[in-house]
Amino acid sequence: MSDTITTLAAKLAEDTMKVMDETGNDRFFVEVGEQLGASSQTLEEAFLTEIRVRLAERKARKFVIETLTKHRSKMKAIEKK
């Protein structure tokens, strides 16, 4: 895949995620993908990959934070005893 496609897909994914966050429309990326697919399947595939990676990272980061928060809560409860 060319650097141009990768760069464009990454930037579009960042912007799309911002719109999703602001509007609360967690499926907006599908609409953007459909717009891309009408003119460039290559860019559509790169964009969807970028979105999936970002969504997966968010989910994993949330899990890591929740796990650490629970652990720290347990440790504080033990210290208070």
Describe what this molecule looks like in 3D.
With 81 residues, the chain is mainly α. 88% of the residues lie in helices and 0% in strands. The chain has 3 helices and no strands. The protein has helices spanning 3-23, 28-37, 41-80. Helix 1 packs across helix 3 and helix 2 (28-37) packs antiparallel against helix 3 (41-80). The longest helix is centred in the C-terminal third of the chain and has 40 residues, at 41-80. It is elongated and about 65 Å long. The chain starts with a helix and ends with a helix. The model has no long low-confidence stretch (mean pLDDT 96).
Helix content: over 70%
Shape, per Cα inertia axes? elongated
What fraction of residues sit in β-strands? under 5%
Instruction: Give, in order, the helices and strands.
Output: HHH
Uncertain ranges: none
Q: How many extended strands?
A: 0
Number of helices: 3
Biggest β-sheet, characterized? none
What is the CA–CA distance across the termini? 58 Å
Mean pLDDT across the residues is 96
Summarize the structure.
The protein has 81 residues and is mostly helical. It is built from three helices and no strands. Helix 1 crosses helix 3 and helix 2 (28-37) packs antiparallel against helix 3.
Topology, please?
Blueprint: H1 3-23, H2 28-37, H3 41-80
Feature tags:
88% helix; single chain; mainly alpha; 81 residues
